[in-house]
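Checked the freezer inventory, then went back to the computational side. Two predictions to log before the end of the day. The first one is the construct we discussed on Monday; recording sequence and C-alpha cells without edits.
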Amino acid sequence: MSCIIGASIRSASNFGSCSFARLTRICLLKAADTLWQQIAAMKTIVPIGVIVLVAFGIFAVLSLMQRESTNKLIQADASGFFQEKKQEAELARRSNPEPISQRPVVSGPSWLDPIQNAIEDCWRAIKSIGHRNRPQPPPQPRLAPPGVYFTLTYLSVRNRSGITNLYPGTRVICVKDEGPVLLVKEGKIEFEAERQYFTNDLAVAGLAVKNDAEAQQQVASYIAQQQQAIEQRDDKRKTPPLGQH
C-alpha cells in the first residue's frame, strides 16, 4: 500500500514539474516573439529615418551650393553693371568736359519743424507788438497849392460897395505875405487879415466848413497854435543876436 502511495506521489510530482516547465517555456517563447517583433519593427523604422536624414542633408547641401552660385552670379553681374556704368560716365565726361550739375538735396520735414515754426511765430508777434508800441510819426498834412489859403472863421470885409461877408472855408489867393498879416484877394476884393485866420492845410479847411462843436473846437485850437507860433517868430525876430546891441 505504501508503495502505491509513493508511486502516486512521484507520478504527481513528475507531472507537476513537467507542466511548470512547459508553461515556463511557452511564456518565454511568447516573450521572445514579442521582443523579436518589436526589434523587427524598429529595424524597419531605423532605415527609413536614416534615409530621411540623408535626403534632408543632401537637399541642404544642394540648396547651399545653389545659393552660393547665385550670389556669385549676382556679384559678377553687379560688377559688370557697375563697370559698364563707370565706362559710360567716363565716356560722357570726356565728351562733355563741363561738370554735371547736381540736384540740390532737400531735406524732408523733421520733428524740429513745428518747434521752429512756433519760435518764428512768437518772434513775429513780438516784432508786431514792438511796432505797435513804437510812436508813429504824425501824418504829413495835405497842403493846398502855393499861394492858396482858406479862411478859418467868419470875416467881414469893408469895400467901396459896402461890407462883404466871407464864410469859413472861403478860398483866397495870397497877394503879399507880410509875416503876421496876409494881403489876400477873393475875386475882386483885396483885404488884409491876421495870418492865424488862414490855413493852407486842406484837413483844417474841411473842419472849418463844418458846423458841429467838435470841429469848431479843433479849428479854435489850431488858430491858437498858429497865433502862438507867430508870436514866437516875432520875438525871435525882435531879439538881437548875441554880441550885438
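The second is the one RB wanted added to the comparison set:
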Amino acid sequence: MAQDDHNPSSLTGNPYESPQDNPPEDGKTDDSTPVQRWPPQPNLPMALVWTIGLMVIQIVVGAVIGIGLLVIGATFYNEGPSPDGQLPPWMTNILIPIATLTTLASAIAVAALYYRGQTGRRIAWRFCSMTQLVIVLLSVIPMATVASEVVNWAAEFLPHFNAEVFLSFSQQPFLIVFLAACVLPGLGEEIFFRGFMHHGLSKRYGMALSILVTSLLFGIMHVDPVQSCGAAFLGLWLHYLVWHTESLAAPIILHILNNTLAFVSMRFADQLPVPGLNYSEPDTITHTPPLLLLAALAAVIPLAIAIWQSRTYWVLPDGTRWVSDFDEPSTPDKDLQARASHDNASILTWLAIAITFSLFLAAVLFASQSVSELTVERLLARHS
C-alpha cells in the first residue's frame, strides 16, 4: 500500500524554496517567445574539471595553512617535519578539519553557482521516509564490512599512506573527530557528488553511467589509492540510495555513520575487535573471514531490494505520477503541488532482512570472539 509523505521535510527547511525558472535570454516573457532550455550540468568533461578543481582547492588551502603552521611550530615550539617528511600530529589534527570544511564550503558554492534559486530542488535536499531511513541504518555495518574488505584487498597491491594519519586522528576528542571526519565529509562530499554531479550526469547520460563515473571520481578525490578503492565501492551504494529515495539525506546519513564506524573501530580496536574492519596495525593487512564477508553480502541483498520496493515517486493532485524531464530538477516545482509517496517493502523482504541481518550479527560476534581469543594467546606468548 502506498504511503504519502505529506509536506516532505527538508534538512534545513522547505525543499521548494525560491524556485526560479531560467528566463528567456532576450528578456521577453510572452507565451510566443520560446524559453532557452539548457542541458543539465555538469557534463562528463566538466565533472572531471570540477573534481580536479575541488582537489586543487583542498591542496592550495591545506598548503597555505600548513606553511603557516610550520612557521608557527618552528618559531614558537622549535618543531617541524620529521626526517621522513611527516608533519607533527598536532598539525595534522588541524589540517584534517580544515580540509573537510573546505570541501563542504566548495560543494555548497558550486551547487549554488550552477542552480542558484533552485539548488535545493536540483540536489534533492529533502528527507527520506521513515521506512527508507530504517533500511539505510540497517545497511551501515554490512556495507562497511564489505567496503573494508575491498580496502584490504586494495592494500595488497597499492600504496596506503593515510592509515597512520587517520589512526592518530582517531585518538583525538571524539566530538572533534565526529564533526571533522564524519559530519563535514558526509555533507560536503554528498552535496558535491550525489547532489550536484549526479543531477547533471544522470539527466544527460542515464543512471548507469552517472553512477559509475561519479563513484569513480568520488574515489579519486580521496587521493590515497587504497582509500580511493573503498570510497568508489561505497559510492555505488550511496548512489543507489539517492536514486531510489529521491533524497540526499539518505546517502548523507549513511556516509556520516560509515565514517563514524571506521573511526570508532580504530579508536576502540582492542575493545571491539572485528577482523578486517579494524585498523589498529596500519602495516598489517587482516582480511575479513569468508563467513563474515558472505553474511554481510547476504544482509545487503534484501536491503537493496527493500530500497527498490519502497522507492519514492511524486503524485500530482490529479493522482498521476510526476516524471522528471531531461532538464527538470529532482524535486517538482512547488506550484505543481506534488506530494512524495512510496510503497512499502513486502513482508517477505522484511522477513529476509530479519533473517540475514541476524545471521550477520551472529557472524560478527563469532569473528570478534575468535580475534579476542587469538589476541589473548599472543599476549600470553609474549610474556611467557
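For RB: DSSP finds eleven helices and four strands in the chain. Residues 41-383 form one domain. Let me know if you want it refolded.
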